Amino acid sequence: MRFIHILVCLFTLVVFAEASNEGCIQCHTDESILQMLVNPPKLERVLGVNPAGEMPPSKTDAYFRRYLVDRSILNKDPHFENGCVFCHKGDAKSIDQESAHKGVVKRPSADLKLCGNCHDDIAKIYSSSLHYNLAGFLDKITKRFSKDEDRLFKDKVFGQSCKSCHASCGDCHVSSPSVKGMRRGFIDGHRFVKKDESKTCAVCHGGRIYPEYIGKLSGTPDIHFQKGMGCTDCHKKGQMHGSGNSYTNKDETKDKPRCNDCHKTGGEPKVISRLAHSKHEGKVSCYGCHVHAAYSNCYDCHDGNASSSKPSFILGVNPIDRKSLTTLRALPIERNTFAKYGIKMEKFDEIPDYRAAPVHSIRKSTDRTRSCDICHINKKDFLTRGSLLKNGSRANEKLIFNMAPLDIN
Known about the structure:
Radius of gyration: 25 Å
Number of strands: 7
Number of domains: 2
Number of helices: 19
């Protein structure tokens, strides 16, 4: 029966293909055909992902739907006016799966010139965006390398594995790979959308940031999410696309959202709040007091073993300015992370294994805002010599914060 079904489908496909001269549409708008032709990929670990840069689907029997196109949008969206092959190449006239996909480009927008045909102003700006070029990741990691190791990393690792995670236009506006079972494949049947935060933000930032924001990890969402705010209420389009300026990492960017963009100090209705903010300004980040719960920290991600994650709360010196206390997040890196590539990381001890963490788990009232003793007497969750990562960078010791005596004057 299955063989007969296939023959019927292929016969139907031939008829439609001849009529429309677009075989791509006939397959990709028909669930029954896709279900027969699409097989889920096998998971092969390469720094946590398979060679295509995609995570395996959560439900293998529904994997084919990631390629399903909604036929109703084809005559409404100008992106489809020139047919599928304009962006994806391949042979639209062929009804043979292998020959039809010969030369197919899976991620057309990886070449920004394609989108730049119509969106030239945005494409030019986006080419220098850290979302696109991953310069920030490259800058941070290569500070641990010698010059020879830097060249080896760029040749053997970055281009083959790390760079596969960069976000092209289509990864935000059309589709994106699956991460930990969150939405995958085409956004709403291959529609071109301005935003879909459960896809455009959550898929790439779904390991820590988005689950923290919606309360999936702690059980209590960030107050901004609870008030109905989405990612782009703070992270504006200009930040996503870039400013046209080139930065080596995100710490240098000028357009990051800051808490005091909305929450000005000095006008708080309660005297105790005004006093607390004035005393801590420039000394403690907003996250240091207003993150309400333990957040995810990842370990062992790149040492050749399975990664592990556990909730913890870490307070220490801000590695960016060294003058204030803030929440820290452990970096998933080990001394032998890239050993199999011949990279020993000769400067490993020059860079801390923690970074300043803008944890998206904010509440107005937390244990730390209710009691000074938690920090000034108990020193709860402060980074100490005893809690430092084992066999970690020697630079980690510089992040231990020496709490000053409580100033009651």
